[in-house]
User: Which sequence fits this backbone?
């Protein structure tokens, strides 16, 4: 298990130049935005606009904070995403457009290369939430501070901090309410 502190996350421009991304973790760690198999990032969306197109990529988007956004995805309609709604999975290679509901939002964006891996994203909220994670996994704190237990080992985390691990792990929040995202990434077997 590796601790990824918020202040150490890499910052880079969006692919379409419309804003800035905070990269939490990526694999493999190659320059640019075309060679990754999976990527977990956060971004502040401050204006209405199109999402970047990522050929061959599947995406899951969740709103960490802010009033929310309406995301129109070609072929899937329009979805209102707010901190209380479930993450939305959609293909990253179809046109998508975001309209803010009431001011800027911060989002969590998980991307996986379709031919290389699959993803699952869940939000764990409240007191004593738990999950068993498998494969490669990331636990990200949406609101903190939080005390997170991984296989019984307690780790204090702040907003934006993440834990990166591999293999089966039991993740749980303590007595104080937490707001976490659990991301699982499973590699696909070569065919």
Assistant:
């Amino acid at each position: 298990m590796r601790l990824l502190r918020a202040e150490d996350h890499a910052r880079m421009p969006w692919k379409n130049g419309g804003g800035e991304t905070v990269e939490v973790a990526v694999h493999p760690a190659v320059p640019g935005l075309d060679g990754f198999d999976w990527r977990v990032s956060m971004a502040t969306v401050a204006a209405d606009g199109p999402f970047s197109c990522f050929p061959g990529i599947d995406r899951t988007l969740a709103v960490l904070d802010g009033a929310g956004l309406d995301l129109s995805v070609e072929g899937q309609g329009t979805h209102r995403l707010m901190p209380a709604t479930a993450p939305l999975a959609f293909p990253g290679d179809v046109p998508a457009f975001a309209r803010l509901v009431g001011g800027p939002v911060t989002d969590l964006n998980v991307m996986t290369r379709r031919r290389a891996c699959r993803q699952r994203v869940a939000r764990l909220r409240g007191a004593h939430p738990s999950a068993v994670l498998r494969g490669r996994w990331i636990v990200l704190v949406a609101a903190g501070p939080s005390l997170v237990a991984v296989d019984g080992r307690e780790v204090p985390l702040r907003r934006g901090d993440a834990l990166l691990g591999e293999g089966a792990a039991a993740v749980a929040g303590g007595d104080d309410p937490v707001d976490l995202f659990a991301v699982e990434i499973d590699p696909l077997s070569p065919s």
Q: What stands out?
A: The radius of gyration is 16 Å. The mean pLDDT is 91. The longest strand covers residues 117-126.
